[in-house]
Amino acid sequence: MRRWGVAEYLGVGLAVLVAVMGLLVLAGVWILTQRDIALMSGATNWEVWDRALSLWAYAVLMGLLGVSVGLALWWWSRVGRPLLRLRDRFRRLLWEGIGTASPIDHAPSEAADIAQATDAVAQLLGFLDEVVRRERQGAPPTVADWPPILQQLALRLLNEINEARQTSALRESILRDGLTLLRAGQQSDSIEGYLSKVAPIFLRTIGAAMGAFYRVEGERLRRIYSYAYPADAPQTFMMGEGWIGQVAREGRALWLSTLPQGYLQALSGLGKAPPQAVAVLPVIAGNSIYGVWDIAAFTEWEPAQQAIAEALIPYFAVGYLLQEESHRQRSFTEARTALEVQVQTLRTESDQLKAYAATLLQKLQQSEQRLQDMQATLHQVEKQLTYAKNRWDTIVAHLQEAIVFFDATGRPRYLSPAVHRLLGYTNEELQVFFRPVDRADADAVRQYFQSLLSPTPDGAPQMLRFRYRHKNGQLLWLEAFGRNYLSYPGIEAILLILRDVTEEMEYEKQYRTRLKFQSLVENSPDIIFRIDREGHFLYVNPTIERYTGYSPSHYIRNTIYSVGFSLDEVRFWSEFIQKLFDTLVVQSAEIDFPSVYGMRKMAVRGIPEVGPEGEVETMVVLLQDITELRHVQEQLHMQNLRLEQARRTLEAQKRELE
Fold first, then answer.
1. Would residue 390 count as lying in a domain?
2. 425 φ/ψ angles, rounded to the nearest 5 degrees
C-alpha cells in the first residue's frame, strides 16, 4: 500500500476543517431554531422559519465546499502529479532522443526548445495515427517505419541491455573466481600452498603475465610467492620503500602504464620480455593490510581488468584470512592433542605418585621408629657437644692470636676471646670490624679482603700488616693471616688470624738505624743485603753463606739474574723490588728459600733507604728464617680448623635430631 504524500494529508485536513465549520454552523442553527420554536409557540408569522431555512442552506453549502476542496486535492495527488511526472519524463525523453546532452547540462535556447518539442510531438502524434490506421488494416508498422526519435531510443535501449548483460556476466565470473579463492583458502595447508593455487587463477583472470606477493611482517614486506618473476628482484622492502612499500603504507592501488628504463622482465618458456603495464595492489581486510601484489602485463590495463582485479582482491584477502584461521585451528588442534597426551601422562604420574605416597607413608612410620631410637642417643650427643665446645673454648681462650671468622660480606660471625684482649672492643662493637682501621691502610685492607674472596690456587694463607686503632686510642700494628674456607662444609667462612706486631714494627724501625753498625750486621742471624733499582747486590752479610754455601763475594757486583736464582725466585725479587720503589714504603712478604738445610720459610722485609736529599736509590732487604714458627702456626691452625669443624658438625647433628 502506497504511503500518502503531503498533498493527501493537506486535502484531508482541509476537508475535515470545512466539515467541522459546517457542523458548528449546523449546531448554531439548531440552537436558534429551538429558541425560535419556543418563541413561535404563540406566533403565526413565518419570518423565523425563513431565517432558519437560510441558515440550514448556508451550512449545507459550507459542507459541500469542504468536500469539494478535499476531492480536488485528492485528485491532484492521485492524478495531477503523475501527469506532471509523465510530462517531465516525456520532455526528457524528447531531449535525450534529439540532442547529445541533457537539457539540464546544456539547455538550448527557448525558441529551439519549442521548435524541437513541437516537431517531436508532431512526429509522435503522426506515428500514433499511423499505428492506429495500420492496426485497423491488419498491417502493423515495422521498425524501419518508426520515427527517428523512436529508433534512437530503441537503439539506446538495446545498448543498455547489452551492457547490463555483460556486467552481469562479469559479476558472475568475479563471483565464481572469488568462490574459488575462498575454497582454496579453506582447503590449503599453508600460505604458500594457498598462493600456489589461487595466484595462477588471479593473474590469468586479470590478464597479468607475472606477479609476486609480498607479505607484511611488521615494518618489512617479504616476498613469499612469485610467478614468472625475476630471481634477482628484491626479496624484501621496508614500509614506504619503492612502489611496494608506498602502497603498503598508503593502502591504495597503483596502476602504471609508463615504466622506467630497465624495469624487471617477465620470464616464460620462450625467454624474457619487458612488460608494458604494472599494478601494485594492496591486500586489505577490515582495517589491516596483509600484503601487496606486484603484477605486470604485456598490454596496457583495460578498465574491465582493473575492475576485476579490485573486485577479486577482497576475495583473496578473505581467503588469506581463512587460511590463517585454518592454520590457527590446526595449531589449536595439535596443541589440544598434546594437552590430552599430557593429561594422560599426568594421570599416569598421579597413579605412580599415589603408589609412591603409600611407600613414603610406610617409610615415615619406620622413620618415626628410628626417631624414637635416636632420641635415646640425643642426650649422649649433647654431652659430647658440650664437651667439645668446652674444649674449643679452653683452647681458644689461651691463644695469644685473635681468631675471627667472616662471611663473604665482611661481617664477623665468630670472635675469639683474644680479640677483646688485643683490641679492647666488645663483640657488639666489632660488628663493623674494619671501621677502626687506619685511613692510610683502609684501601690495602679492602683489597686484601677482596683477594681473600678469590682463594689462591695452592690454598696458601695470605698475609697483610696494617694499622688498627685500639679502643684506648693507641695505634696498633696487626699482622693478619687469612684463608678462604667459604667452600668448606661446616666452616663456610673466611678465617683471619690476627697478631700484634707493634713491637716488631718498632723493632724494624730501630733496625734500620742499627744497620749502620757493621759489626751488628755481620753477626746477624738473618740474611741482610742492600740492592739497587736494577737488582745489583751492593752488600751481603756473611749469614748468607751459612744458608746457601756461597760467600758474600759471589753476590756483590752481580744481579738477581746472574747469581743462580731459579725463575720463580727471579720473578719474585723483580716484582718485590719494583713494588718497593714504586710505593716507597716498607714491603713484607714470605718466600720459600732454598738452602743447604733444605727449603726454608723466610719472612722478607724490604726497607727503602732515603738519601740526604730525600731520594731513594737503594733498599735494605732482611730475610728472617720463620720456618719453625710457621710450622707451629700451621699445626695450631689445622687444630683450630678441626675443632671448629667438629663443633659445627655436632651442632648440625643436634639440629637434625631436634
1. no
2. -95, 155
Express each pLDDT in 280-301 by its tens digit. 888 887 778 888 888 888 788 8
Please tell me which residue, 592 or 21, carries the higher pLDDT value: 592
Nearest of 322, 323, 304, 321 to residue 173 by alpha carbon = 304
**How far lies 194's CA from each of 43, 197, 244, 322, 332, in Å?**
110, 5, 21, 10, 20
Confidence of residue 572 (pLDDT cuts 50, 70, 90): very high
CA distances from 615 to 193, 472, 578 (A): 88, 37, 16
Report the candidate in 202, 221, 199, 225 with the shortest Cα–Cα distance to residue 212: 225
pTM: 0.31
80 pLDDT exceeds 60? no
Q: Are residues 529 and 611 in the same domain?
A: yes
Q: 555 or 53, which is more confident?
A: 555
Mean pLDDT of the chain: 76
Long-range contacts, stretch 487-493, CB < 8 angstroms, 24+ apart: 488/645, 490/644, 490/645, 490/648, 490/649, 490/652, 491/405, 491/641, 491/644, 491/645, 491/648, 493/405, 493/406, 493/407, 493/413, 493/414
> Domain of 219: which CATH number?
3.30.450.40
Q: Is the pLDDT of residue 91 over 70?
A: no
**Domain boundaries, position 280:** 169-327
Rounded Cα–Cα distance for residues 168 and 460 (Å): 99
What is the torsional sign of CA 194, 200, 201, 202? positive
Report the amino acid identity of residue 178. G
How many domains, in total, are found in the chain?
4
Half-sphere exposure of residue 62: CA atoms within 13 angstroms, side-chain side: 17
* pLDDT per position as a tens digit, 168-191: 666 666 666 666 666 665 566 677
Q: What CATH number does the domain containing 478 carry?
A: 3.30.450.20
- Cα–Cα distance measured from residue 349 to residue 328, given in angstroms and rounded to the nearest whole number: 30
